[in-house]
Amino acid sequence: MGMNLRLRGKVAVITGAASGVGESIARSFAREGAKVVVVDIEVDRGNQLVEEINEPNPRHALFVEADVTRDDDSAWMLKAAVEHFGGLDILVNNASAWHPRKSMLEVSEAEYDRMFAVNVKAIFLAARHAVPLFEQRGSGSILNIGSTAGLRPRAGMAWYSASKGAVLSATKAMALELAPRKVRVNAINPVLGEYRHFQDFLEGEDTPERRTQFMATIPLGRLTKPEDVANAAVYLASDEASFVTGVHFEVDGGRCI
Ligand SMILES: NC(=O)c1ccc[n+]([C@@H]2O[C@H](COP(=O)([O-])OP(=O)(O)OC[C@H]3O[C@@H](n4cnc5c(N)ncnc54)[C@H](O)[C@@H]3O)[C@@H](O)[C@H]2O)c1
């Protein structure tokens, strides 16, 4: 291990970490010297990831099966950080729910409730268990994964966008209220990613024409890679960002300009 690991000695809990952006954040954090608690409802994928992380970096990762919308699960995932790794420094609220793009009038009540439970309520629940642990350490860092949808919605994602808007206002309010406790709270807003669910966010079939049309809305002309988000997350979670709190950090190729 090199001398300049940016998250050396830190303990992170990352929700929805069995795939996509969360998986990439877990791999990057471990590479930078952090101990990571991988939280997901997808048990097989979560265990597989933890095995892969622990292969070059033994005892850096732990899988915890937890549904972030349940208060007792939320308490358990944070307690696991203390029991296995001795404390908590970083909480990444990344787990998310959405629906395939459709009219706001066609979104079911169950879909609406699920999105607000996973995307918003989970942050509220986790904060109540995490803040006392940050206080024991004397500081902490919370990263909420938002979306460009929360700042610059597209038609067909109304209530998902609204839930991400709530993530962003919560981020600022939490940052303000937790600053006296030296807990920083920031959000990262990725634009659409070129991986799972890409098609859910297009309007209709994934044709070359629709891709071209979509790409034209992103000035840098490509989609998000999970590593783009992970690189921003490493910075914001690290001590390099010790004076940064309450920001909405776009990783979106200029989409929100
Ligand atoms: N994919 C995109 O294009 C995109 C764009 C902007 C923002 N985002 C945001 O990035 C984050 C990660 O998205 P992703 O694309 O990697 O999605 P993903 O589906 O690959 O990963 C989300 C993970 O969350 C887990 N999860 C869902 N509900 C859960 C629950 N109740 N408890 C615990 N885990 C749960 C899933 O099992 C999954 O592993 C989300 O917050 C998403 O809104 C994604």
Describe this structure in words.
By secondary structure, this protein is an alpha/beta fold. It has one domain: 3-Layer(aba) Sandwich (Rossmann fold). It is 44% helix and 15% strand. The protein has 8 helices and 7 strands, in the order βαβαβαβαβαβαααβ. It has helices spanning 20-31, 43-54, 71-85, 109-137, 158-178, 198-201, 208-215, 226-237, and strands at 11-15, 35-40, 61-65, 90-93, 140-145, 183-190, 248-251. A 7-stranded parallel beta sheet has the order 3-2-1-4-5-6-7, sandwiched between helices. Strand 5 (140-145), helix 5 and strand 6 (183-190) form a beta-alpha-beta unit. Helix 1 (20-31) packs across helix 8 (226-237), helix 3 (71-85) packs parallel to helix 4 (109-137) and helix 4 (109-137) packs parallel to helix 5 (158-178). The longest helix is centred in the middle third of the chain and has 29 residues, at 109-137. The model has no long low-confidence stretch (mean pLDDT 95). Nicotinamide-adenine-dinucleotide (NAD) binds next to helix 1 and strand 2.
Fold blueprint:
Blueprint: E1 11-15, H1 20-31, E2 35-40, H2 43-54, E3 61-65, H3 71-85, E4 90-93, H4 109-137, E5 140-145, H5 158-178, E6 183-190, H6 198-201, H7 208-215, H8 226-237, E7 248-251
Parallel strand pairs: 1-2, 1-4, 2-3, 4-5, 5-6, 6-7
Helix pairs in contact: 1-8, 3-4, 4-5
The structure holds nicotinamide-adenine-dinucleotide.
Nicotinamide-adenine-dinucleotide (NAD) binds next to helix 1 and strand 2.
